[in-house]
Amino acid sequence: MNGAFVISLDFELYWGVRDSKTKEHYAENILGVREAMPLLLALFNEFNIKATFATVGLLSFANKEALLAGMPDSMPHYSHTAYNLTPEYLQHLGHSEEDDKFHFALSFIQQIQQEGVHEMASHTFSHYYTLEEGASPETFRSDIEAYKKRAHALGISLNTIIFPRNQYNEEYLRICKEAGFIGFRGTEDSWLYKPLSRAKETTWRRLSRIIDAYWNISGIHCADWSELKHPSGLYNIPASRFLRPYSAKLSWLESLRLRRITNAMTQAAFNGKIFHLWWHPHNFGKDIQKNLNFLRSILEHQQTLHKIYGFESRTMNKCYSILNNYEQR
């Protein structure tokens, strides 16, 4: 089989950072998504890119009343209280997307659907942290059920789950399989990216990942088609590289950041493997044009590889279909 170029985006807005960043500190990134998303979708159309958009279910409601009515039957009680989604927090939401652009994004979800080429996936209903103390299989099942119900109302079939902060283990993967998911995005095969709770994360590991974005210290991380069936029964389309946003302080290293990505893409195309790039739309909310220009360089390289090696853009769900057809031969 030819290699595949996979892009997945974790679409979460403020739900994904509410426990770590204040609105005042991160407003530019969150509000900037309103400008960046249409430009991103236009760029995808220009290069015939088919992406997987994993969305937090809470973003998908038209107003607060509907959101509150759609909440899971039970919620986790994390030991780290900042992670908990309290009634007080929910009551302070705006009424709708018109007056609360941090927590509502139904218009963008509908726009992505209308494109007709992208995959809509789950980033859990509540931005659920499976590896944090206080998470439980019962509340995770409730979270999944709430999202499945909302997705059905929107006409969305959920085949892919992408775990917030890439936190997962065998137990939660088994629950996803039971719930009808087909695949997920695993982490890179390196100690730098092994799924951990925030309490077990270290400054050294975070620093090493930044270095790895510019210099190859962990490997290429291109996935072999024959190794994508996970013991859970799900397909694992593992991450190859997180597309870090533009940094003014590190702008002198941009050529290295680009080469780190394009070299791995070339390896994947030449060897018939999968290269999986991912990021959050809010990463592009600041320095929008610089980030889009950088992405354009990546997509131009993908086009070249497509002409030479048949290195085609695929959603995660399309990869499952290819694998399923191959296995049935």
Task: Kindly describe this structure.
By secondary structure, this protein is α/β, with parallel strands linked by helices. The protein has one domain (4-327): TIM Barrel. It is built from 10 helices and 9 strands. The chain has helices spanning 23-46, 64-69, 87-91, 106-115, 137-153, 170-178, 203-212, 254-271, 288-309, 316-327, and strands at 4-11, 52-55, 119-122, 160-161, 183-184, 235-236, 241-242, 274-279, 312-314. Strands 1, 2, 3, 7, 8 and 9 form a 6-stranded parallel sheet that branches. The chain has a 3-stranded parallel sheet with strand order 4-5-6, with helices on one face. Strand 1 (4-11), helix 1 (23-46) and strand 2 form a beta-alpha-beta unit. Helix 1 (23-46) runs parallel beside helix 9 and helix 8 (254-271) packs parallel to helix 9. The longest helix is centred in the first third of the chain and has 24 residues, at 23-46.
Q: Brief overview, please?
A:
This protein has 329 residues and is of the alpha/beta class. Helix content is 40%, strand content 10%. The chain has helices spanning 23-46, 64-69, 87-91, 106-115, 137-153, 170-178, 203-212, 254-271, 288-309, 316-327; strands spanning 4-11, 52-55, 119-122, 160-161, 183-184, 235-236, 241-242, 274-279, 312-314.
Secondary-structure element pattern, one letter each? EHEHHHEHEHEHEEHEHEH
Structure annotation, total helices: 10
Low-pLDDT segments: none
Task: Give me the Rg, rounded.
Answer: 19 Å
Q: If classified by CATH, what would the architecture be? A: Alpha-Beta Barrel
What's the mean pLDDT score? 97
